[in-house]
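pinging the channel bc i need a second pair of eyes. not urgent but kinda urgent?? the chain im working w is below, pasted from the shared doc
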Amino acid sequence: MMSKIFPLLLGLVFLTLVARGQSLSEADIKNLLARIAERRAAAPDVHADFQEQKTMRLLNKPIVSSGKIWFHAPNKFRREVGGNSPSVTVSNGRELWIYYPNFKSAEHYSLGKRSPVDAAIAAINTALNLENVGKTFQISGAKIDNGYALQLIPRSPSMKRIFQKFDLRLNSDLTADRTEMVQPNGDRVVTTYSNQTRAAIPAATFEFTPPAGTEITSPLGK
């Protein structure tokens, strides 16, 4: 189940926030995070196209996919993957759906019940909300030609079980052009983004009703 959540989490990280360049001091990073928070408060919606490559130890070739992602701060999102194995992942902040059109099946997760999904999303939301982020992550960064680069390494044992580190490359608009997540087992997910926009997103985007005839399961219980 968690292998399905990790790519989604990378997408969420992109919607808020390394390379080499002029290193940022602690004060520089604090000021940058404040600017990101101000930008998110003024425009809480972000929509973008993405391309993703997952490299896994058990597979000889990377898994490549592409699609679209929508986000409304602090915790509503939608992620649509196209291609031969399409999927739709939607959360309104209270529940999470993962729908597989080819199989006419959907997985349903209730949030806020201290489940593994809650733990994973909470880890990312810490980065998204940037509240006390310095207590949760070791942060380093650099100023690069067209923006910034940040690296977040989790401090707590619970977050270290979910991911090892995030590398985030920000453009001049303070959204990410590229993210890279390294998991503790060495698996890696690299995602690049394009066509970012901060236009308002309809609330219905973050609601999901399974089509008629869909087989629904609740892997973690109701």
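so The chain has a mean pLDDT of 82. and The first strand starts at residue 22 and ends at 23. — does that match what u expected or am i reading it wrong
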